[in-house]
Write a structure and sequence with these properties.
With 154 residues, the chain is an alpha/beta fold. It has 2 domains: 55 residues, Roll (2,3-Dihydroxybiphenyl 1,2-Dioxygenase, domain 1), CATH 3.10.180.10; 66 residues, 2,3-Dihydroxybiphenyl 1,2-Dioxygenase, domain 1. Helices cover 21% and strands 34% of the residues. The protein has 3 helices and 8 strands, in the order βαββββαβββα. The strands form 2 sheets. Strands 1-4-3-2 form a 4-stranded mixed β-sheet, covered by helices on one side. It has a 4-stranded mixed β-sheet with strand order 5-8-7-6, with helices on one face. The chain is elongated and about 55 Å long.
Length: 154
Amino acid sequence: MKYLHTMVRVTDLDASLDFYCNKLGLQEVGRYDSEQGRFTLVFLAAPGDEKAQVELTHNWDPEEYGEGRNFGHLAYQVDDIYALCQKLMDAGVTINRPPRDGHMAFVRSPDNISIELLQEGEALTKNLSEWLQSSALSQLGSLDSPPNLDWTIA
C-alpha cells in the first residue's frame, strides 16, 4: 500500500491557492480540469516532498460544504515554526493556536480546513511571550489591527 494524497473540497480555488501556495509555501505539482464533470483538481506538495500531496477539489457549480470535524487536519513539518507563523500573520492569516510550546501551531485555510504546523526536531527555545511581543511589535504599523491570533484550540 502507498499513500497518495488527501483531498479537500474548496469553494474559492484562487483564495485556496493563494493560501496553500503563496502563504503556506506548497507548490502546484499537477492540475486536471474536467469540462464534462465541471470540476478542477489541483495537486499540491511541500517543496522536496512531492509524494505527499494535497488534492484541492473545486466543483465549478456553487455548493455549500458542511464543516465536518471528522476530517481532522493536515499536518506539515516546518523548519522554523515562529518564522512561518510570523509570515502567515503578516499575510493576514489568523494563528488559531499560537506556537506557545515552540513545537506546534494551527491555522485554517479559507475553507476552514485545519492545518497543523509541527516544528522539525526539538521545540524551539524562544518562549511564547517573547514571540508574541516581537509579533505584536512587527504589526504596530497600524495600531488599529492587532496580531491575528485566536486562542481557541483548532
